[in-house]
Amino acid sequence: MADESDEDVREQLKAALWYAVGKMVDEETLRRNRNVTPQFIGALTEMVWTQIENVAMDLESFSRHAGRLTITTDDVLLLARRNQDLHSIVKDFIDAHKATQVKGKSKR
User: Which of 62, 81, 98, 104 could bond to 75 as cystine, CB 3.0-4.6 Å?
Assistant: First the structure.
């Protein structure tokens, strides 16, 4: 029964991803006056889904290697280490978020 529930959640997530990818592709095709096929959207969705699965497994592995049960921003930064531009964007986002949290705590 748990397997059915997991599969249902997986299918719901995949459907939500399909919808989100479809919306983004639609916006771009309108903006650029282009057309795409439903097969293109399906293939792109599958590619994104596979990438998400790979990222999730890597993040779990990094966390487990560090002896943690929780994935942290350090794991995300480690994942982005080979792409300097992405690493910088993620690091800047994390630093800005931490600064916002510090400001919020000091107001209390």
Answer: 62
Which helix or strand (DSSP H or E) is residue 107 part of?
Answer: none
Sign of CA dihedral 37, 38, 39, 44: positive
Tell me what pLDDT residue 4 has.
Answer: 76
Specify burial of residue 75 (Cβ count, 10 A radius: 0-12, 13-18, 19+): buried
> Rounded CA gap, 61 and 40, in Å?
32
- State pLDDT tens for residues 38-59: 999 999 999 999 999 999 999 9
The alpha-helical segments, DSSP class H, found in the chain are 2-32, 38-65, 73-79, 84-106
Task: Indicate whether 37 pLDDT > 70.
Answer: yes
